[in-house]
TrEMBL record:
Pfam family, one: ATP-synt_B
Function: Component of the F(0) channel, it forms part of the peripheral stalk, linking F(1) to F(0).
Membrane topology of this protein: Single-pass membrane protein
Coiled coil: 76-103
Transmembrane in keyword set: yes
Gene name of the record: atpF
Other facts: In plastids the F-type ATPase is also known as CF(1)CF(0).
Subcellular localization, as worded in the UniProt entry: Membrane; Plastid, Chloroplast thylakoid membrane
Protein name: ATP synthase subunit b, chloroplastic
Top-level taxon of origin: Eukaryota
Similarity annotation: Belongs to the ATPase B chain family.
Subunit field text: F-type ATPases have 2 components, F(1) - the catalytic core - and F(0) - the membrane proton channel. F(1) has five subunits: alpha(3), beta(3), gamma(1), delta(1), epsilon(1). F(0) has four main subunits: a(1), b(1), b'(1) and c(10-14). The alpha and beta chains form an alternating ring which encloses part of the gamma chain. F(1) is attached to F(0) by a central stalk formed by the gamma and epsilon chains, while a peripheral stalk is formed by the delta, b and b' chains.
Ranges that cross the membrane: 31-54
Length: 189
């Protein structure tokens, strides 16, 4: 220890005190450097201890880290809340889409059934109209045939009467009919 204190106070004892050079004694040079640094700190620090300064730096760093962690936690909480809201909106939209899909399918089925029913009704009406038209045409044809048969029968009867009747028979038939009409007139009077 004596050598150590001597190296600090007896600068003239050094062999290279008059010239510039490197001191290769590591132990003595480290001690000199430490003593200079401690002296500068004590002189300029005036009572500020190195551990207090280091403690303040560490406390500041700790506070910044804690503040950053709190801010990160708050941001994380906000992000989780927004994520849950987005998931809830997504579920709601999916449920609405499913409801629209179900309603759409049921509406399509209803429209399909309505279309089928109205088509059956139209077909039934067309069938009834067709049947009525057929019946009308059959009745008209039957009436035309009857009328032709009646006309042909009447023409045949008139032709037979005309060929069978001569003038004398014709006059007698007319007088008999006039006589019958006269007797009918007397009965009604």
């Amino acid at each position: 220890m004596k050598n150590l204190t001597d190296s600090f106070f007896s600068l003239g004892h050094w062999p290279s005190a008059g010239s510039f050079g490197f001191n290769t004694d590591i132990l003595s040079t480290n001690l000199i450097n430490l003593s200079i640094v401690l002296g500068v700190l004590i002189f300029f620090g005036k009572g500020v201890c190195a551990s207090c300064l280091l403690s303040d730096l560490l406390d500041n760093r700790k506070q910044r880290i804690l503040t950053t962690i709190r801010n990160s936690e708050e941001l994380r909480g906000g992000a989780i809340e927004q994520l849950e809201k987005a998931r809830a909106r997504l579920r709601k939209v999916e449920m609405e889409a499913d409801q629209f899909r179900v309603n759409g399918y049921s509406e399509i089925e209803r429209e399909k059934l309505n279309l089928i029913n109205s088509t059956y009704k139209i077909l039934e009406q067309l069938e009834n109209y067709k049947n009525e038209t057929i019946q009308f045409e059959q009745q008209r044809t039957i009436n035309q045939v009857r009328q032709r048969i009646f006309q042909q029968a009447l023409q045949g009867a008139l032709g037979t009467l005309n060929s069978c009747l001569n003038n004398e028979l014709h006059l007698r038939t007319i007088s008999a009919n006039i006589g019958m009409l006269g007797s009918m007139k007397e009965i009604t009077d």
